[in-house]
Amino acid sequence: MAMIFAKPSMRTRVSFESGFSLLGGHAIYLGPDDIQMGKREETRDVARVLSCYNDIIMARVFAHQDILDLAKHASVPVVNGLTDYNHPCQIMADVLTIIEHIGQLEGTKVIYVGDGNNIVHSWLLMASVIPFHFVCACPKGFEPDEKTVEKARQAGISKIEITNDPKEAVRGADVVYSDVWASMGQKEEAAHRRKVFQGFQVDGNLMKLAGSKAHFMHCLPAERGVEVTDEVIEAPNSIVFPQAENRMHAQNAIMLHLLGN
Ligand code: CP
Ligand code: NVA
To answer: Where is the Aspartate/ornithine carbamoyltransferase carbamoyl-P binding domain (predicted)?
Structure first.
């Protein structure tokens, strides 16, 4: 497997690399300075050349179009390891974690608090397939992509709500989910976002409002004391580490599926 990383990573890199070796494969890490896709060489050429040496390609890129171009021109399966638009492997692992800790995703209430980002888009796409109640509570102006919200609503499978009121949103949650306020590629906006996102920190009070059945989830890495407090990550109802572990198991299943086993 060729693993293309235009951005940093711990979980995605190590879970794919360790996971693929557990399956008997070998993974090659290609960091931001290695192939410089789109700069040193066109994406369509990278796709065709890597397809000659590998059975599968995994890529973490900035522009979503890059993963679409890779998939279009590669002759082997291409797995999305995060783009600016979405992060499907993360949400597959999250659903596995919910199944393990709550029993099933169907019928649960998943409340995301924070930026309407790539994680939210993958939750919305999941909500187009499996019926559950998904709420995104984000500051005004930081809502998820409208077309993706519309697509999830049009699917008519799940209840979808987008709100600017985290306190109201979390009541009765099965899962309160958080992510960084400034994603990779937006770090220069971090200071501004910290001001705008006041009131969207998941802290002990917000978890109390959520109620006793609420689990806390976060895709990690977390900025403790920013979008979530230490207390919440370390609480017994926090399932962030089993969630991180499940990246590997969920992705192994995806790779076995793609490689025909
Ligand atoms: N959750 C996640 O994708 O983590 P990394 O950025 O460390 O891969
Ligand atoms: N939204 C975050 C997720 C990191 C796993 C980012 O894109 O940086």
So the answer is: 1-100
Q: Is 247 exposed, middle or buried (0-12, 13-18, 19+ CB in 10 A)?
A: buried
Q: Quick one: pLDDT at residue 144?
A: 98
Any catalytic annotation for residue 136?
no
Which atom of ligand 2 is the closest one to the Cα of 12? 5
Contact predicate 116/138, CB 8 Å:
yes
Pocket of ligand 2 (CB under 6 A): 82, 117-119, 179-180, 183-184, 219
Strand-pair partners of 4: 30, 59
This prediction's pTM: 0.98
What long-range pairs does 138-146 form, CB within 8 A, spacing at least 24?
Answer: 138/112, 138/113, 138/114, 138/162, 138/164, 138/200, 139/164, 139/196, 139/197, 139/199, 139/200, 140/164, 141/196, 142/115, 142/116, 142/196, 142/197, 143/116, 144/116, 144/117, 144/120, 145/85, 145/116, 145/121
- Report CA(12)–ligand 2 centroid distance (Å): 11
Q: Whose CA is nearest to atom 6 of ligand 2?
A: 183
Task: Tell me what the mean pLDDT of segment 182-208 comes to.
Answer: 98
Task: Give the relative orientation of helices 88-102 and 240-258 as an angle to the nearest 10 degrees.
Answer: 120
Q: What is the pLDDT of residues 9-67, one digit of tens each?
A: 999 999 999 999 999 999 999 999 999 999 999 999 999 999 999 999 999 999 999 99
- pLDDT tens digit sequence for 65-123: 999 999 999 999 999 999 999 999 999 999 999 999 999 999 999 999 999 999 999 99
